[in-house]
């Protein structure tokens, strides 16, 4: 049996008190339960690294990690984050580039950069859960991420560089 979140209704009946960990920091917000995580991140918290594109969970530009697992933040309501840990691309700015970011830089796997945060977070989430994934497993992890600029050559080189396969 899973534990049900405990919400506190504020004096405004249309808002909820939602508490979660955002990039390692406990965060409490008073928001309408109908708000999407992506909108709260970008509008209320000025975390614009998470992008909005298709708004229906098909492009991957808005991927964040929730309890270490990639999620499309455009499909996640803020109340669903109660008691969870949310990690955005902004959390990576305080450290030297991780191996995913470094591979994107070395392989020239970005152009406009709009899709890059979602791809980095999707791959980071996979690597959180599987230390040495194969090329095909990593390709599958990016199946929901679209890039309209690069033609995927650089992105595929990133997967080759990060994979446990010996692919030439």
Automatic annotation (TrEMBL):
Domain 2Fe-2S ferredoxin-type: start-end pairs: 16-92
Keyword line: 2Fe-2S, Iron, Iron-sulfur, Metal-binding, Oxidoreductase
SUPFAM superfamilies: 2Fe-2S ferredoxin-like, CO dehydrogenase ISP C-domain like
InterPro entries documented for this protein: 2Fe-2S-bd, 2Fe-2S-bd_dom_sf, 2Fe-2S_ferredoxin-like_sf, 2Fe-2S_ferredoxin-type, 2Fe2S_fd_BS, Beta-grasp_dom_sf, Diverse_Oxidoreductases
Keyword Ion transport in record: no
MF (Gene Ontology): 2 iron, 2 sulfur cluster binding; metal ion binding; oxidoreductase activity
PROSITE patterns: 2FE2S_FER_1, 2FE2S_FER_2
Superkingdom of the source species: Bacteria
The name this protein goes by in its record: 2Fe-2S iron-sulfur cluster binding domain-containing protein
Lineage, uppermost ranks: Bacteria, Bacillati, Bacillota, Bacilli, Bacillales
């Amino acid at each position: 049996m899973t534990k049900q979140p405990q919400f506190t209704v504020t004096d405004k009946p249309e808002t909820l008190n939602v508490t979660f960990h955002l990039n390692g920091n406990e965060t409490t917000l008073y928001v309408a339960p109908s708000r999407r995580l992506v909108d709260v991140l970008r509008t209320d918290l000025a975390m614009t690294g998470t992008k909005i594109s298709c708004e229906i969970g098909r492009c991957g530009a808005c991927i964040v990690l929730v309890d270490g697992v990639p999620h499309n933040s455009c499909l996640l309501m803020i109340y669903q984050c109660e008691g969870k840990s949310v990690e955005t691309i902004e959390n990576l700015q305080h450290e030297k580039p991780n191996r995913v970011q470094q591979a994107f830089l070395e392989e020239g796997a970005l152009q406009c950069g709009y899709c890059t945060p979602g791809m980095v977070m999707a791959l980071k989430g996979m690597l959180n859960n599987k230390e040495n994934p194969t090329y095909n497993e990593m390709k599958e992890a990016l199946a929901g991420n679209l890039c309209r600029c690069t033609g995927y050559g650089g992105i595929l080189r990133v997967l080759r560089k990060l994979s446990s396969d010996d692919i030439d």
